[in-house]
Amino acid sequence: MFSADFLVFCSILSAAWCQSVLIPKTLNTTSGSCILIPCQMTTISESVLDNSPVVSWRRGSLWKYYDTNNFISEHRQKEPEMELIGDLRKKNCTSVMRNLTGQHSDHYFFRIQTTNYTFTDNKPVKITVSDSLPEPNVIVPGIREGEVASLTCTVPAPCPSLLPNVTWAPVFGGNITQGIQLKADGTLSGFAIWEFVPSFTHHELKVNCVSVHPVDGGDKQASKQVILSVEYPPKETHISLPGLVWLGNNLTLTCQSKANPPANHSWFMKREGVEEKLGDSHVLSFIATQEKTGEYICEAQNLQGAMNSTSLQINVQGISFTTFLSILLSMLLVLILSPFLILLFHRSRSKTPHRHETTEVENIYANSSTVKSQ
Known about the structure:
Elements: E1 6-9, E2 19-22, E3 26-30, E4 35-37, E5 40-43, H1 46-49, E6 54-59, H2 73-76, E7 81-84, E8 95-98, E9 106-113, E10 118-120, E11 125-130, E12 137-139, E13 143-144, E14 149-156, E15 165-169, E16 175-182, E17 188-196, E18 206-215, E19 218-227, E20 230-240, E21 250-260, E22 264-271, E23 274-280, E24 283-287, E25 294-302, E26 305-308, E27 312-314, H3 321-350, H4 355-373
Parallel strand pairs: 3-11, 13-20
Antiparallel strand pairs: 1-2, 2-5, 4-8, 6-9, 7-8, 9-10, 9-11, 12-14, 14-17, 15-18, 16-17, 18-19, 20-21, 21-24, 22-23, 22-25, 25-26, 25-27
């Protein structure tokens, strides 16, 4: 029943009294609670069982006070409250220690006694009483989109009369099964199994296993957080193209998608009804020429599936960006210089005499010459 050390004890009086007892090597609990000590006697004389045997557990730190006059009330007060709950007739010596505090952490030795017979274990069980609770143990198997996932959380249940409540939070659908189970070593544990159907939206979500343990004076709580990793095929696959397409430019197309595990990407170009594979990579780079005009498609794929992007039509026509920029600068230069050229033209015209003014000047000089000759 118990996967514990097999402890063999033999009476020094006779080989007929040879005893064998199975108990755990270590046990843990929290202050304010109790603890179950699994115990099984595999060999014991029927005469011992018929003689009203008494089972006790001797504390290692007080060992020297037992069976002496010095073992007075002050030493007894340091011992925990002990109760035998096993059926000795069935060789079950399972016991419970109650009202434990941190000062009860110690080594405890099994002892069985009758009027004419006493047997004491020489290898103890180590009991540790802590103020805090141990962290829950969480098992998360591989999770795939669309397949039922089963998350298991377990916590020790050292006290059979104060059992923990174990659950998950937050919960998005599915069912939670809770309960107490008997382990191979005879101890108990509480569990919560959460079954649900995940989607890719649950990837990287944080969930918590929470256990609440009733103890004397209130409750104690422990929790453990896990981050879900949901495997799913590529989603939202699309092509990103920064900027405009100019003849002769270096173009870089980026394939983007959501996937777990991360997707591998392949590129295809469709032109005049013919599809051509361009390569396998996350990005596709090339120089824009008229031969590169066509539909571009990206395929994202992982072990869970594949998804194509919507096609991206790229048309490479006209002039290069450098030529376009030169023309644009020339036009801007003309627009900027035009007012100055017009102003210079008007100024040059204002400095040139009109023809009728020249004729009048010539007439004046002619008339002046005529008068002098007379």
